[in-house]
What we know:
By secondary structure, the chain is mainly α. It is built from four helices and two strands. It has a two-stranded antiparallel sheet with strand order 1-2. The two termini are 57 Å apart.
Amino acid sequence: MYYKVSGVTGKLTGATAASAYSPQGLKPTVPSQAPPMIFAVPTKVVSETGSVAHYMGINKVPELQNIFQKADGAPVHLKRGVMDKMLYRTTMGLTIGGTLYCLMALYIAAQPRKPE
């Protein structure tokens, strides 16, 4: 025998197999029309697009090469200025703070409980 929760009383009641497996009275239906194709747009063959690549912006590689290859003694991750220094110092501060917090938590956890 199959059971389902009654919507009126909120208790289990006997049910037929068909109503027990269709939640909230939903019945499986067959769609009257076929669903539309998802990829219905025509596709382009690679040879039709041509060999020219179109970029959305300008090429910044030579400019960045000049910045990063400058022999000024600064590490690569600090060569772009103030923003790099702020990110580096923030990262180091959070790392050191997190390490200290973990060590403090381990120290507290290692202490025996005080008898009450």
